[in-house]
């Protein structure tokens, strides 16, 4: 049940109404790996870092069954750096700095040992890189999941459309769905996007949960109402990790099982936002996961009949 995960491994500087950190480990691939590793292993990571990425973080990932043969280390350059500032509502943020550094010349190579993996998580990166990983795999994985963002819709739409033709599940947020489809109604967005290639579409709506679309079917997973959201960075990637981790663990790619997958995605996202960076994803135990899962069940489980 190996999962190949392509994504950035980075340093982030984050400012929220609750505090500020100047340089902590982040990156879409890092969040996916920590979240997915609670549910399935190995995670076969494909990424690139500079000479500054902490050895300790690499050890931490390895301990959790994350294989790093596909992570290139460039000795004389810096890791990708991203900086963002959240607005008061914590739902929106401004990107302040994007220093590509090593990412500027990234040419991902799938190691021989990764061939044959049945699950592929294409984290948010340039669409050409996502396509290159798909094309290097000699056997098509059972499930290919794609995450992307508005930036690629603005700068690389044609490449993105080529990748869309090759994936099973697309994961985006509601504003990105509107941008990609040129529609406002989420249902109309879904109909249009499902004609662009993916058979399944997950639309994330932050604190308002996530929707899963497939043909004429729709399923909704709530987000857990939390007392405090400390740092939303990486929540989308943690969601992706929880989803693909569940799919790989259960070896079942049906729509029914994807419903549980998006609940596990929401569980991972709910932990992720409780502390700065991926810290909380490192701390949680099986017991924490079980408890939170039952909170999700309680949240939307009701018995009803007309009287
Ligand atoms: P999320 O909050 O789920 O959108 O993910 C935030 C993470 O994505 C941060 O840790 C950043 O390092 C990383 N990130 C931000 N912009 C990019 C980008 N253009 N390409 C790759 N990773 C990015």
Indicate the topology:
Elements: E1 3-6, E2 10-16, E3 19-26, H1 28-36, E4 43-49, H2 55-63, E5 66-73, E6 80-86, E7 93-99, E8 119-122, H3 127-136, E9 143-147, H4 150-155, H5 157-164, E10 169-173, H6 174-181, H7 186-193, E11 200-204, E12 210-214, E13 217-221, H8 235-250, H9 255-272, H10 279-283, H11 286-300
Parallel strand pairs: 1-4, 1-8, 2-6, 4-5, 8-9, 9-10, 10-11
Antiparallel strand pairs: 2-3, 6-7, 11-12, 12-13
Helix pairs in contact: 1-8, 3-5, 6-7, 8-9, 9-11
Residues 8, 10, 12, 26-28, 82, 98, 124-125, 151, 233-237 line the site of adenosine monophosphate.
Could you explain the architecture of this structure?
36% of the residues lie in helices and 25% in strands. By secondary structure, the chain is α/β, with parallel strands linked by helices. The strands form two sheets. The protein has a nine-stranded mixed sheet with strand order 5-4-1-8-9-10-11-12-13, sandwiched between helices. Strands 3-2-6-7 form a four-stranded mixed sheet. A hairpin with a 2-residue loop joins strand 2 and strand 3. Helix 9 packs across helix 11. The structure holds adenosine monophosphate. Adenosine monophosphate binds next to strand 2 and helix 8. Adenosine monophosphate (AMP) binds next to strand 2 and helix 8.
